[in-house]
Amino acid sequence: MKKDRKVIPQPVIGRLTKYLAYAEQATESGREWVSSKELAESLGLTRSTVRQDITHLDLSGMSGHGYETEALRKSLIRTLGLRKGCEVVIVGAGNLGRALARHKEFSRKGFRISAIVDSNAKLEGKKVGSLFIKGMDALPRLVQKNKVSIGIIAVPPSSAQEAADRLVQAGVRGLLNLACTHVATPSGVAVVESRTVANMRELCCAISMRS
Amino acid sequence: MKKDRKVIPQPVIGRLTKYLAYAEQATESGREWVSSKELAESLGLTRSTVRQDITHLDLSGMSGHGYETEALRKSLIRTLGLRKGCEVVIVGAGNLGRALARHKEFSRKGFRISAIVDSNAKLEGKKVGSLFIKGMDALPRLVQKNKVSIGIIAVPPSSAQEAADRLVQAGVRGLLNLACTHVATPSGVAVVESRTVANMRELCCAISMRS
DNA sequence: TAGATTGTTAATCGATTAACAATC
DNA sequence: TAGATTGTTAATCGATTAACAATC
Hints:
Two copies of one chain form a homodimer.
Chain A: H1 10-28, E1 33-34, H2 36-43, H3 47-54, E2 67-68, H4 69-79, E3 86-91, H5 95-101, H6 104-108, E4 111-118, E5 127-128, E6 131-132, E7 134-135, H7 139-146, E8 150-153, H8 157-170, E9 174-177, E10 190-193, H9 196-210
Parallel strand pairs in A: 3-4, 3-8, 4-7, 8-9, 9-10
Antiparallel strand pairs in A: 1-2, 5-6
The first copy, chain A, binds a DNA duplex through helix 3.
């Protein structure tokens, strides 16, 4: 009899991923307990917020001790739907796309880069890490065959929308858009904009406001 | 007599950067007017929110027409404190660091990568784009000389905190952390966590909730 | 003028925080 | 037991939305 888990609000989800990163580190360093106090102080939140967030998990803490690190980690993985890894395809084999294809952190966190494609025919067949660059036409077949669910857009802003369209058409269910343009998608497809340039701008803004 | 500009709430700042990206594109394609309706629909917001946000700018729209694209763009640049570009240093000359050093979009948006450094002595002197990789020890001098205000952390999670410490010590005023670990900084230094892995996880989560 | 859109106020909605009894 | 921390409820705070007169 499953607890009927309601939809978790976006801001909460954002913080849950932070708790997960923290729990993973704590697990690695062999810490057995983590408290809401510790999480709050390390991540710049209040204890109330942390405890309120943890309400959304299927997890019980222990009064006086906090949460078992490993149980917290597992519960977060379950709740966030991260149990069974995830196949990814990268569109764009420029600097950024190639760097991501070889980025260790992805596989360490359960994401498998199953292909990298580019519209530039000259790049076709070249090797990136252990992958060979494929043409855009291969996209639908690659997505089907490898059960790819996420597409990463690593092309210049001017071709971002086209990349998105082709990925959606090929059947991916989520997009990570690294181009600093907004892309439009049908409502069934989740999009996260990476916003590196936007982040830099926000930094600039924060800096200039303080001086 | 300047309008006493109050602090702008973070969620608003986040959206202002989106309007800016939109206004830049609209400017490039020669569009003269942009309305709150158009912004809202393109970016998935309500018109009310857009108009409320624009309240924070020193800008007047025109009833029946909207906002002059160019005036909107300029006002956003002013308000976000982006008028005079920004010097940046990258720590970490791995795949990601090197890719960013050559990333066109940065310079196009007013960020100048003035140096790239790495703790691995073997990389010292190698060329990345038009830059030569320097050692970590060069950091303080580079930051002073080039008036660097932002440091990008592109090292493995395990050395992220150290990179942050050295950047702060060298005198940068903001950090963009691309490692998927939280880094702690003194309160005078702004930090934005890039969260690429976290974003991927949020995508996974969104996907798994829909199925 | 008619149509469209701004600027602004007030109402709603949701998220964060405070507080505390219950528990280990 | 005493100290610490959870889980939960209620209060506060802030952000989003709705609505509409004013304006081009």
